[in-house]
Amino acid sequence: MISISTTLIYNGTILTMNVDNEVYSPGYVYIQHDQIVETGAWPMEEGSIRHLLEADRKIDAGGKAVIPGLINGHTHLFQTFLRGVSDDHPLSEWLRQVIWPGSLAMEAEDFYLAALIGCIENLKSGATYIMDHHYIHTYEENTENVLRAMVESGIRGHLARGGVDLSYEPRLREEEDVIFERTAALLDRWQGEGTGRIEIAMGPLNLYGCSRPFLERAARFSLDRNLITHIHVAETSDQIDNTLSRFGLRNLELVEAVGMLGPRTQVVHGIWLDDGELELLAKHQASIIHCPVSNMYLASGVARVPEMRKAGINVALGTDGPGSNNCQDNLEVLKFTACLHKVHHLDSTMLPPMEVLEMGTRGGAKAMGREKDLGSLEPGKKADIVIIDMQKAHIAPIHRYSSALVYNANGNDVHTVFVNGQIVVEAGRCTLVDEEEIIRRAQARVDRLREKLMNRYPAYSVRS
To answer: What region holds the Amidohydrolase-related domain (predicted)?
Structure first.
């Protein structure tokens, strides 16, 4: 095998997503090992011929857009096995009728295959980084199987080890000590795996499933180990009522009271936060993970994203799990983000394309604590790069590449993906795993899962 240490991507439109949102059209990116060493206009005033001669690998990106890898700030990979089971439910009913029965009937091997399909789909739709919030621990191997899938696929990301200590669904409840013991074990075994691509986060699932002592302990655990804390907050108005009745505090007031709110905190959804809670977010420099498709699908509400950004709050984007999206198309999320807030505010000027791209790249990197080495195409940053074919009938002809990416492109247009300088998608195909074989195995397992559930749960009995 020929060793490749340098790669030249040239002749494409380079959206750097640096602080000035510089675009080179045409431009180039020069990679050495796992890092970007140069970007700029192409052809260069001098050096173009040298780069063409010296680069071990040369990619002519003519007609393509080159962007930093998108960052999927929130998903549940296991839900690829549950997508499309039954639609048209609010969150609480969807959990009871679809997610809990299905996930509790899944076997350890199912979690590996489901996660691997989710990783494939994320990569093929432009996400080089995911935050997987995993909370189904029916088998000890479940979590490690998800992590194994992440490593094998070549994706970069966190696994937030989810858990609850209250009995909102008794079969998901765990003893507090068990949650922390197993999270510590994951840190020992998996932190830094996959040549540094894999990290572990603390993931208390939500506020209504967690006791105050557990939340306080989770906050200390994360702080002591400098971990990200990733938690669902204020996804529905009922969740606000829950903490008001239990503690006399709104959702984010409780998160602050237990010591959990800080720069390493990721507040997922945050739809029903009031003005005071937005002030808390800004004060503590926490990040919001906005999942517009899921919020629409479950009719949960609309997060106050324009107001958050105006207040200086960092906003990242997420697909949410495939059970409430129902896909993992990260380019699709860009369009939904822009359109949702325009119509919600009856203001067509809301969230122009570059702002949406910022949330999907730099906003995600900041939320992950990786703004110094991810989120933009700049010298010294990791070579997590996506090349998108723009010469398609639903995209071309193009006036502005930022607009075409947000409003026209979708996951099927992703041509090449680099993670850590390694090509993990080429010509729209994953290079490290056998997609057809994984899909075949997954379908057989899902058919078996449905057979187990169809007589007990109506949602699993309907095939049309």
So the answer is: 66-424
Residue 234 and residue 193 in contact, taking contact as beta carbons nearer than 8 Å = no
Quick one: pLDDT at residue 3?
67
Tally of residues, the chain:
464
The C-alpha atoms of residue 270 and residue 153 are separated, in whole angstroms, by: 31
pLDDT recorded at residue 2: 58
Q: Please state the pTM of the whole predicted model.
A: 0.97
Tell me if residue 200 falls in helix, strand or coil.
Answer: strand
What is the 3-class SS of 244-296, one letter each residue? HHHHCCCHHHHHHHCCCCCCCEEEEECCCCCHHHHHHHHHHCCEEEECHHHHH
Mapped onto helix, strand or coil, the DSSP state of residue 164 is strand
Confidence of residue 169 (pLDDT cuts 50, 70, 90): confident
332 versus 1: the higher-pLDDT residue is: 332
Torsion-angle region of residue 463: left (phi > 0), alpha (psi -120 to 50) or beta? Answer: alpha
* CA–CA separation, 4 and 421 (whole Å): 10
Token pair in block for residue 30: 């020069």
Residue 21's nearest CA partner among 362, 287, 315, 339 is 362
* Phi, psi angles (nearest 5°) of residue 268: -85, 125
Burial 110-122 (b: 16+ CB within 10 A, else e): bbbbbbbbbbbbb
Question: Which of 340, 254, 262 is closest to 305 using CA atoms?
Answer: 340
Average pLDDT of the segment spanning 293-303: 97
Say what the pLDDT of residue 464 is. 66
Whether residue 1 is predicted with pLDDT greater than 50 in this model: the reply is: no
Contact 236, 301 (CB under 8 A): yes
- 34 phi, psi to nearest 5 deg: -105, 15
Is the pLDDT score of 447 beyond 90?
yes
Q: Tokens 């994953």 belong to which residue?
A: 430
- The reported pLDDT for the residue numbered 46 is 72
**Cα distance between residue 371 and residue 71, in whole Å:** 11
Q: How far is residue 314's CA from residue 308's CA, in Å, rounded to a whole number?
A: 8
pLDDT digits (tens, 9 = 90+) for 8-52: 999 999 999 999 999 999 999 999 999 999 999 999 777 678 888
Q: How far apart are CA 253 and CA 243, in angstroms?
A: 9
- What residue type is assigned to position 4 of the chain? I
Indicate the DSSP class of residue 363: I
- What share of the chain in percent tops pLDDT 90? 91
Residue 11 φ then ψ, to 5°:
75, 5
Beta bridge partner(s), residue 23: 15
Nearest to 342 by CA among 353, 357, 331: 353
What's CA 262's distance to the chain center, in Å? 20
On average, the pLDDT of the chain sits at 96
Point out which residues pair with 159 in neighbouring strands: 132, 200
